[in-house]
Amino acid sequence: MANFTFTPADWVPYKDFDPRLLARLRALDASTYEQREKHHHPDFRIKVLEGFGGVTTADRFVHIKASDDLDQKFVMICGNPNPHSYMPLAELINTFKVNCRNLYVFTMDEWADEAGNI
Fold first, then answer.
1. pLDDT tens per residue across span 67-100
2. Which of 6, 48, 102, 116 is the most core-located residue (most Cβ within 10 A)?
3. pTM of the predicted model, to two decimals?
4. Which range of residues forms the domain containing residue 90?
5. How many domains does the chain have?
6. Is the distance from CB of 73 to CB of 66 less than 8 angstroms?
């Protein structure tokens, strides 16, 4: 495995990267993702899904719809915008006429290294 030498740009506030933890995470094998480790969350379960787009779309929609129905704020932080996942979500919102007045969306579509390269 190649050395991990990424350093975030100066303006990135989070810089506390534990190299041992990162090495352990990078060494994980997909065949063991669902195996449990001893930890303090006995009810926590991991399930690896192929083609998880439908599940994430449904999950986002349910939360957005609930924020409308219950008149409660819902904050959604999304990874790099991917039209293939957000277009079906928009279709559901429009089809069911969900009001997004309580929805606050932040997209994390810009990542930079120590030189500011995105």
1. 999 999 999 988 776 777 889 999 999 999 999 9
2. 102
3. 0.60
4. 19-107
5. 1
6. no
